[in-house]
From TrEMBL:
Assembly with partners or alone: Homotetramer.
Ligand binding (K(+)): 63, 123, 159
Positions of transmembrane segments: none
Keyword Nucleotide-binding: yes
Signal peptide: none
Source organism per UniProt: Neorhizobium alkalisoli
Keyword Transferase attached: yes
Gene designation: nnrE
Name of the protein this chain belongs to: Bifunctional NAD(P)H-hydrate repair enzyme
Length: 493
């Protein structure tokens, strides 16, 4: 299935390949630049009608060329416009030189710019074409514009922002709006890039989408199109046993709440049966709070193996409030042939024995989902986490390949990755999901979808997306209990 245009993402390198393919196809690259620059000017006039002056900052490449075209269009429209160049214009080449030559106004060196009240800055310095820290003169201008609180319209990406990783390269503009062309980059969605871009607009400059798709990798924005085909449906003849049996492991008597949150979320998310498996000292406290959710006593790995021999359990969640240590590791090894969501304490239990975990799930279809936040990811994949050249998407993909697991690398920009290199960046989660117990609810939702037969990656991606929708439904004052109640939110909201 083709990725819908709205969810397509291209790395800067992939977009460069698209541009080259467009030229090989016979498209006029300067005509594409004219459309891009015209779109920038139109966006500036539409969204900043109160500007006293448009200040266009132009770089040495095609991003700068877009800026020169935009400046020409703005002048023709009667807008006040000032252009500042990072480089000597005599050094421009190709389409950028042609665009600069067509601009009839004065061009000053970038270092001469002094912010004025009423300025709207059009940032056409680098876009996605930067792989090193910004020059000092650009860093200084970024600081001056931020201090003056001037609105910025960024062309392609705010200059200084890495289009692959979404991180600043020394410094980056904070744009009120960003206009990009044909498709967004991962840096538009990954934090802090998403905030630095402001509102992002994608403009079609006329490159055939088949050329764009031909260069796209396996990274996209998370959306139902990627997992809806595997999503469980409820038919008239559906029986509770056909909807799967989810087991959630409880911690000791003083730490039972997290497991109950996961279990409730699993029940709401459609598992036909949900059981909390609890040690003896947690039976009474769990029993006092459970109704539709069943309870089963499990103290030792022997108890677990006996239960597995006698009960038909479809999927498991281990980690929320469970406790860190040998018991968690032993339980996971007993479950190595079963669909498992490993969260929180379950992940941390393997920080010094990670290869045992990876080897246990290395064969067959992917059946393990790991749901680490930043700290847990670093404990399980310390070398990957520490690599400064990798962005969050790349880290998640490498971790998924190493662990033979679906990785849910949590955060405001949660990334879901599969061992085969697929990755989805999630964007629909509201900020108030950052509350205690939210991750327990997510683990239960993913576990329920696996119990109903969804493959690990699709279950993880669907669970993350629906977790965001549940957060919206619950509202900004939500607690984890509210979130769990809304875990059954429909795709229509």
């Amino acid at each position: 299935m083709e990725t819908k245009r709205d969810h397509l993402l291209l790395t800067p390198e992939e977009m460069t390949a698209v541009d080259a393919a467009a030229t090989d196809y016979g498209l006029d690259s300067f005509a594409l630049m004219l459309r891009a620059g015209g779109a920038v000017a139109a966006s500036a006039l539409r969204y900043f009608p109160g500007a006293l002056r448009f200040v266009v900052l132009c770089g040495p490449g095609n991003n700068g060329g877009d800026g020169y075209v935009a400046a020409s269009v703005l002048r023709e429209a009667g807008a006040a416009c000032a252009v500042y160049s990072l480089t000597d214009v005599s050094r421009l080449r190709g389409d950028a030189a042609r665009a600069q030559a067509a601009y009839t106004g004065e061009i000053e060196p970038l270092g001469h710019y002094r912010p004025q009240a009423g300025d709207v800055v059009i940032d056409a310095l680098f876009g996605a074409g930067l792989s090193r820290n910004v020059p000092e003169v650009v860093k200084a201008i970024i600081g001056q514009i931020a201090e003056a609180k001037l609105p910025v319209l960024a062309v392609d990406l705010p200059s200084g922002l890495c289009g692959r990783r979404g991180t600043p390269l020394g410094a980056a503009f904070r744009a009120e709006r960003t206009i990009t062309f044909m498709a967004r980059k991962p840096g538009h969605l990954l934090m802090p890039g998403r905030e630095l871009c402001g509102e992002t607009e994608v403009f079609d400059i006329g490159i055939p989408m088949r050329l764009v798709r031909s260069k796209a990798g396996c990274t996209a924005e998370n959306a139902p199109e990627f997992w809806l085909g595997a999503f469980p449906s409820i038919a008239a003849e559906t029986h509770k046993y056909w909807r799967g049996h989810l087991a959630v492991f409880s911690g000791p008597g003083t730490k039972t709440g997290a497991a109950r949150l996961a279990a409730l979320a699993g029940l709401k998310r459609g598992a036909g049966l949900v059981t909390v498996a609890a040690p003896a000292d947690a039976i009474a406290v769990n029993a006092a709070s459970l109704t539709a959710i069943m309870l089963h006593g499990i103290d030792t790995v022997g108890d677990l193996k006996a239960w597995l021999d006698s009960a038909k359990i479809s999927a498991f969640v281990l980690g929320p409030g469970f406790g860190i240590g040998e018991k968690a590791r032993d339980f996971v090894m007993a479950l190595k042939d079963r669909p498992l969501v490993l969260d929180a304490d379950g992940i941390t239990s393997f920080k010094d024995d990670r290869n045992t975990l990876f080897e246990a799930f290395s064969d067959g279809e992917t059946r393990l989902v790991l749901t680490p936040h930043e700290g847990e990811f670093g404990r399980l994949f310390p070398d990957i986490a520490a690599d400064p050249d990798l962005g969050k998407v790349e880290k998640a993909i490498r971790a998924a390949g190493r662990a033979h697991a679906a990785i849910v690398y949590k955060g405001a920009d949660t990334v879901v990755a599969a061992p085969d290199g697929r990755a989805l960046i999630n964007t629909n989660g509201p900020p108030w999901l950052a509350t205690a117990g939210s991750g327990d609810v997510l683990a239960g939702m993913i576990g329920a979808l696996m119990a109903q037969g969804m493959p690990a990656f699709e279950a993880a991606a669907a669970g993350v997306y629906l977790h965001g929708e549940a957060g919206k439904r619950a509202g900004s004052d939500l607690t984890a209990e509210d979130l769990a109640i809304h875990a059954g939110v429909s795709l229509e909201g």
